[in-house]
UniProtKB/TrEMBL annotation:
PANTHER family: DOXX FAMILY MEMBRANE PROTEIN, MEMBRANE PROTEIN-RELATED. InterPro entries: DoxX. Keywords: Membrane, Transmembrane, Transmembrane helix. This is DoxX family protein.
């Protein structure tokens, strides 16, 4: 069974994002809301999850499980996106409108992953 090119694109994006968690951990740790304990561990776990789920997306027998995992991951990291909007330091000096647009973008990414859940 051949998988569609856009699934490989999604997988590549998550794998690269996951690798970036290890290349530039400070960037991700900075956006984890202080309510969550052990931000270094959370960064490591989310980066590893992105890499693993990205790889699993490319295997036909695990694609739908990986897509559900991506959806769960996107829901789990949503507080970081909201924190970026509310906390000037966590927003990296980005314009507020860009930080606001990131919030509904999560819904688009969830919908994209949902396409591969069945």
């Amino acid at each position: 069974m051949t998988l569609p090119w856009h699934l490989y694109l999604m997988a590549l994006l998550y794998i690269l994002a996951g690798i970036n968690h290890f290349r530039k951990p400070g960037m991700y740790i900075k956006i984890i809301p202080p309510i969550f304990k052990n931000p270094k561990l959370l960064n490591t776990l989310s980066g590893a999850a992105e890499i693993i789920l990205g790889i699993l997306l490319t295997l036909p027998f695990t694609t739908h499980f990986a897509a559900w995992g991506i959806i769960a991951l996107l829901a789990a990291v949503f507080p970081a996106n909201f924190y970026m909007l509310k906390n000037k330091k966590a927003g990296f000096g980005l314009p507020r409108w860009i930080l606001f647009v990131r919030l509904p973008l999560q819904i688009v990414l969830i919908y994209w992953a949902y396409q591969y859940t069945f």
